[in-house]
Hints:
alpha/beta, Dihydrodipicolinate Reductase, domain 2, 2 domains, eight-stranded mixed β-sheet, 9 helices, 34% helix
Amino acid sequence: MSEGKLKGVLIGAGYFSRFHMDAWQRIPEVQITAVCDVDSERANTYAAEWNLPTVYTDPDEAIESEKPDFVDIVTPPDTHRALVEIAARRGVAVICQKPLAPSLPEAQALVALTEQCGIPFMVHENFRFQPWHRELKKLLTGGVVGDAVYAVYWRMRMGDGWQPDAYLARQPYFRTYPRLLIYETGIHLIDTVRYLLGGRVTGVFARLARRNEAIAGEDSGVVVLEVDGRTQVILDMSRYNESQYANPRYTFADDLRIDAAGGSLRLTGDGTLFVQPLGKPAYEHRYAHENRGFAGDCVRACQQHFVDQLRAGQVFETSGPDYLLNLAVQETIYNQQTS
Ligand SMILES: NC(=O)c1ccc[n+]([C@@H]2O[C@H](COP(=O)([O-])OP(=O)(O)OC[C@H]3O[C@@H](n4cnc5c(N)ncnc54)[C@H](O)[C@@H]3O)[C@@H](O)[C@H]2O)c1
């Protein structure tokens, strides 16, 4: 690890990498020295936009020349394995976007490679770093509603998927993914629920559906999880139907309710949190959150976690092995759809 600032190379100059770069520029321990994209025009435009001194179109050359402390991979899922390998073989740390790989065996092979090479590896799983989820976790561990959680209900309504030209403007690849809702979005909810409850998923039941016939994959569905044999979780998700909130991409939760032995917690689509102890009226729980960056600035918080753990030599919350537990749940969900 170099002295002073951590040196990073960003790979993939598309839509979401703008949120990454905005966050890196607000993390004082990091300097991104170069961007790499196979599309040279994209790479050059991005370098100019973010004032980056060096541009590459070949990831191998980028890592060889820059000798960074880490690479940030923000490319499509089917490219992750090869890019991780380029970094891992040189002993360079990696933070990599989800979906980790197109299939579970490919994700397992990717994680195995990072373990064999012994590199620090974190999945850029940002939702659990949203400020309301960090606050909910604090309330749960603080025992504000008791220590036994009975049920979680999470209703997500994105409303960006009903139009004939759905997703084309922002993430056109959504239209052709054979698996969409869980693979791309629901996985965030699975990870966040595992973070909030801290347990093991012991049961899965799911029914998925495609509401917009113009796309290949599923865009709505209900998933029921059992955690540690006692907590019931309902993920009620749709990209088709709309939320009542002006910006459904702020919390990605039209309504999130946690019922526990001592009362309930509730998150609304505008980031407001309520606590309702049993037998008492609900009250608002105030905490800090702002509409900056992506979804409560969770990309910055996620990347700050990567930096903090990397510098301390500590395990990442969303390590490769831990993330495979999310993907095992995802696999069970999809396997149930063929029966
Ligand atoms: N966590 C989130 O909330 C979130 C949100 C949006 C996207 N994402 C994920 O981020 C990743 C990127 O998504 P996006 O919307 O920015 O995609 P995008 O298509 O807009 O950009 C991807 C870029 O990667 C480049 N690229 C492809 N293969 C490459 C390679 N081998 N080497 C270097 N560059 C390569 C492309 O030329 C393109 O510029 C995906 O995995 C996506 O699922 C995550």
